[in-house]
Amino acid sequence: MASSTSLQHFAPPARTSPRRESARRRLTVTAAVIPATEAATAGVAEERLEPRVEEREGGYWVLKEKYREGINPQEKVKLAKEPMSLVLEDGIRELAAKSMEEIDATKVHKDDIDVRLKWLGLFHRRKHQYGRFMMRLKLPNGVTTSEQTRYLASVVEGYGEDGCADVTTRQNWQIRGVTLPDVPAIMQGLGRVGLTSLQSGMDNVRNPVGNPLAGIDPHEIVDTRPYTNLLSAFVTANSRGNPAVTNLPRKWNVCVVGSHDLYEHPHINDLAYMPAMKDGRFGFNLLVGGFFSPKRCAEAVPLDAWVPSDDVIPVCKAILEAYRDLGTRGNRQKTRMMWLIDELGIEAFRSEVERRMPQELLERASAEELVQKEWERRDYLGVHPQKQPGLSFVGLHIPVGRVQASDMFELARLADEYGSGELRLTVEQNVIIPNVDDARVEALLDEPLLKERFSPEPPLLMKGLVACTGNQFCGQAIIETKARAMQVTEEVEKRVSLGRAVRMHWTGCPNTCGQVQVADIGFMGCMTRDAEGKVCEGADIYLGGRIGSDSHLGDLHKKAVPCKDLVPVVVDILVEHFGAVRREREEDEEEEQLGGN
Known about the structure:
The protein has 597 residues and is an alpha+beta fold. The chain contains 20 helices and 26 strands. The strands form 7 sheets. A 5-stranded antiparallel beta sheet has the order 3-4-7-6-17. Strands 5-18-19-16-15 form a 5-stranded antiparallel beta sheet. The termini are far apart.
């Protein structure tokens, strides 16, 4: 388990240090140590390694004056007013007391609600729900309680038809319909049940993802919950707000892998901890740089580094500081961490991470990886035995992740009545009820919610269906996704028979929040023209994404297919690439029968 000392804040050391050399000499295995900084950064100009930010009063980190030319609009908003002041200086109360008319009358306050509030996890739906916000929670490892779920349900319920919630592709909740005057009270309520929404949007570390079966999986490698909890506590300074890591060049994703199944999707995270042994010690090899964006998608690459489990936080801090200090802040499409890695080279980036470690040392990667590469990924939906004798977990399919307040109240009740008052959220937008007594499984399966809404045994095409918010609420989405994903899938199921599940992901725009590149079949929203030349909603189709030990990002298969024409196209893809068999339509069968008579 990670050490409590991991939460300490370590200041980045000076570029040259006698302590580093003496520490090197004390090591008995010199091969495990990175070459000297000078060698590792050969070819990188010294001035390029100068930090571009500096610490100011209040612990805020600010872009230096000489690096402000050509910065993007979001950086200008951060410079005009520190976003974290809304929480650290209680600015949210003053803002929440203003009317929307007052707010829109000044640029600074308009930027507050449209940009800066994202540091508090609040996203104004100006385009589709003016005056209402989506609130994104931090939920490390996707673990939540019935008490927390009931509280969130009560908030959603208060907004009537404007309120709903989503399970996200980062294992957490998003609630919708929130109005600004209610925010201070909602945030206080979150604190009372042990939740926070801080630092869940914009240029921050997003929700730490872990194994949704952590602690209950008979085949798990390590329980990821202690590590994801530590990461979240560090990033948010125990839900108080941590300005040391809130001025990143762009968003930053992290996961801790605890399963052979790689439920955590490490290849698409900026930092992924991969379990590995070294000299009899348990720790993690590190992957860095995975991301999606409209202009580029990249899989994470090895940092050639291993850390003992006690150094999960120090190495996270060191990587974040290297990115914060050195990342560029111009074109937003080129500011994710992989762009910095590409610019410096992996060895120079590694060296910058190493010198920010407490002892300025970073061991090389271990060859003793614990994830089995030939592992067949298991399905967590349905009923499965836990490592604890006499207990099972039950995975429920939540169609495209959308829930209403009544659903959340029921999920909380079921968690209390049949389990231990706990729910687990997954990156595929589903929910797991753990710790169900085997003697009570059948009674749980007979509950109306499972019979009518959230099936443990959904149809093969439905079980792998994922969809982003779409243009119902999101101003960036080009097309509607959730309802359309359901409609297309239901229609396709009528036309083909499948022998295995096929994962289909929908995303409303090139930001690919629906992660279409990891799907067997992905649909990315666009505008196109139909057969009559009329402008209509469409989708670019991606094919061949894989998850697990043989992970691979999918490739563009077909561009700009009108949404109304998708069903026959998907049917053809399933038949040609996934072994589906066409069903005879009822009307065709009837015609054949009539003809035979």
